[in-house]
Amino acid sequence: MTNHPTPPATPSLVAVTEAVEVAEVEALLDHLPRTEPVTWLRNGEGMVGWGVAARIRTTGPERFRDADKWWAELCDQAQVRDDVDQPGTGLLAFGSFAFADQPGDSVLTVPSVILGRRGSVAWRTTVHVEDSPAPAAVEVEPRVEPTGVLFSDGALDGETWMGVVADAVARIDAGDLEKVVLARDLIATADAEIDVRAPVAHLATHYPTCWTFHVDGMFGATPEMLVRRERGLVTSRVLAGTIRRTGDDERDLALAATLARSSKDLEEHEYAVRSVADALEPHCSSMNVPESPFVLHLPNVMHLATDVNGVVHDAATVSSLRLAESLHPSAAVGGTPTPVAVALIAEIEGMDRGRYAGPVGWIDADGDGEWGIALRSASVDGAQVRLFAGCGIVGDSAPEAELAESQAKFVPVRDAVTGA
Ligand SMILES: C=C(O[C@H]1C=CC=C(C(=O)O)[C@@H]1O)C(=O)O
């Protein structure tokens, strides 16, 4: 007789959200201890959390479904008191999901304590397992900057990666597909275990308009919102089409105008917007898909950007995590057509993306939440950080230009780990 292992019982959680003075949580990151920290911040608002009240790790093609089911059961069994009732209050989980069905590990975690702020409202949520003690106060040690950081090639060196880009262009020219996003990695090694709060604080300061995140070792500052659902409204910020900034404002404005007229970038952008609009459509009773993109200015690069909005009709049955699943991978990180592009990535990219370019964000007990795409990101493990950057390859992409673009996309995390 075979004994099947019994799945772990879903814990019964008790969550309490109470209002706090905004002045008390000014500079949220300054309240974040080193133990199991999570972060989701933009323009100084958002949430930081620490400790683990509950956590699930999933893998494979069912990773989103398994995590979503676990979360729904957890919420059903939980006792929640929410005195604030804002997006981000009550019982909350933070997640980071693998890009590919295989290999890769995904995680959804419920912190023991969350501090949040949105405009003039601030809150503290504490979560504990029923019949066990509420989370104790923890000491917040000062952030420790990484030292002695040295960089080395990741899976492929620059030359080899350019060869891979040339192979992809040949496949596109042969008519196999229209676009593929190819990524590369870079390794940074410090002389001691990295305190992830330091690069996270650096990113939040230097890229305030991006979503700065950290979940279970995956951190970054992403400009791309895969899906946000809030009280029946859904938004997705699609980015595709990039130009590097020069640091000279006048030249950058001229470059922005060039980007907005570049047929290569407009074509690449159109693919990405279509893939998002098509995936959202079955969930929406009405949608707004702007006809032309705007130029999003970031400190290191500029992007063509489109905000797609809609009114969802299935919020009661489909969570924001399941919406993220249906949008993933968009053409901004996979390609077009998606299945051919994803297969080509697995065939020629030459590295495991892990959780890079996968959905990262949070979900509440109603299934609302925000899921960004883990771009301009890295995974940290002890003294080592693995940085990622990818570029959309279309028929007239030049390998040298794509290598330079990938280097520009490494800048945020590279500067964050060297403290530059
Ligand atoms: C895949 C990345 O960027 C995507 C998002 C915006 C613009 C892109 C581009 O122009 O290639 C990429 O599709 C990355 O930053 O690693």
From TrEMBL:
UniProt entry keywords in alphabetical sequence: Isomerase
Name of the molecule in the record: isochorismate synthase
GO BP: any one term: salicylic acid biosynthetic process
Coiled-coil portions: none
Reaction(s) catalysed (UniProt annotation): chorismate = isochorismate
Organism placement in taxonomy: Bacteria, Bacillati, Actinomycetota, Actinomycetes, Propionibacteriales
Recorded family membership: Belongs to the isochorismate synthase family.
Keyword Isomerase listed: yes
Molecular function GO labels: isochorismate synthase activity
Domain Chorismate-utilising enzyme C-terminal: from-to ranges: 159-409
Keyword Isomerase: yes
Gene3D superfamilies (UniProt xref): Anthranilate synthase (3.60.120.10)
Pfam families linked to this entry: Chorismate_bind
Enzyme Commission identifier(s): 5.4.4.2
